[in-house]
Predict the structure.
Amino acid sequence: MKKSLLALAVLSAFAGAASAQSSVTLSGGIDAAIQRVNGDWNMSTGNSGRTNFTLSGREDLGGGMAAFFAMNYRFNQGTGQSTTTSTASSFWRQTWIGLSGGFGDVRLGRMLPVLQEFNGGFDPFGTETVGSTHSGGLNAGLAGNARINNAIYYRSPSLGGLQVHANIAAGDQNLVSGGAFVGGSERPIGFGAQYAAGPLKLVAAYDRNARDEKTKGIYGSFAFGNTTLMAQYENGDVSATADQTVYSIGARVAMGAATLKAGYRNNSDAEQKKLGLGVDYNLSKRTVVYADVAKQSGDGYSTAAKKAQFDVGIWHKF
């Protein structure tokens, strides 16, 4: 009996050491909402990246180095179907493997380019819901290239609050024509820098996609008390002969379990403006109910798109 207990104790010690050195995590969320868009009422398909699950893991390699991976899968919570296309795999949102250490970290796989990695963090709505005033709504220089395949992405360690990002991807598998990938495109590249110190965060980023369309972005936020102010500015190609400039401003105000959201986006080149208002209410640390309203205006929108937009939903994270 004593030998059995001793053996069990030894095995438990080894198991504890192994779990401390390596781990795999399942995380994600499910989002569902009733919404009115373009004058029609419907069920949302899970606002952007909110309905998904992610398998991720990390292994301590010693000497301050670690290996890590992530595989993110999106699905339609209303039907259970994948939200992939003919050119996308099951884990189409992001999937990578990488190494980290004192040098920062390097990832290889499919992922957001540098500019997209940064800009979503400066929209009060997190690029989700009908209220979003994300500057990426312009798709300037990023149409069809919100993510990059066969990519290498580097992030430096933070040096006094300054961190540098850079990416490059292969010229194939990044340009779609007729529902299939085609070769002979430009190698997508991107780089940017973020400075974060206390309540202030500033970002500058550049992106060139597979169509040789280029986008430049400047973003910032400042937090004081329970309020965070945000701003976005982007200028980018929308064709071989034209570019557009878009900016947005917004704020998030925490009031106990509730967070008020407001944003305004202006793209004068496309004659498009949008105002978004909303509220999140935290039922717990993982469950949020929300409601948003938005109004788009300008000759760049269709009559249907100018009709008021609404949503009411619930988002559970795990």
Notes: Helices lie at 2-21, 114-119. Residues 2-21 form the longest helix (20 residues).
